[in-house]
Amino acid sequence: MEFKLINIGFGNIVSAGRIIAIVSPESAPIKRLVQESRDESRLIDATYGRKTRAVLIADSGHVILSALQPETVARRAAGEEESDFRSKEEES
Q1: Do the bridges between strand 12-15 and strand 5-9 make them parallel or antiparallel, or are there none, so unpaired?
Q2: For residues 72 and 80, what is the distance between their CA atoms, to the nearest angstrom?
Q3: Rounded CA gap, 41 and 35, in Å?
Q4: pTM summary value
């Protein structure tokens, strides 16, 4: 069984196998989800006081806030290095 970890910024790491969604925090339903998670002590804030740019939803019901863009977290989850991704974009 492979155990893959994702760096979600500032040295914080989560298990890729436990993440079921990576979403933007801008919509009202996601803001409600974050507030409900905070109220129920299921929120993990990994932003270090920075602006929340991605909300990760875990299969355990925990909600994790990250200061990285959702696309960046998704690329890391997919196993692509950011420098590799930039090179692919430049080639297109």
Answers
A1: antiparallel
A2: 10
A3: 10
A4: 0.84
Q: Quick check: 89 pLDDT over 70?
A: no
What whole-number distance in Å separates Cα of residue 53 and Cα of residue 27?
A: 12
The pair phi, psi for residue 66, each rounded to 5°, is -130, 150
Q: Looking at residue 80, what is its pLDDT?
A: 77
Q: What phi and psi, each to the nearest 5 degrees, are found at residue 86?
A: -60, -40
Residue type at position 81 = E
For Cα atoms 66, 71, 74, give the angle at the middle one, nearest 5 degrees.
80
The DSSP 8-state label assigned to residue 78 in this structure reads: H
Each residue's pLDDT tens digit, 2-42: 789 999 999 999 999 999 999 999 999 999 999 999 999 99
Distances, alpha carbon 17 to alpha carbons 5, 12, 20, 89, in Å: 8, 16, 8, 27
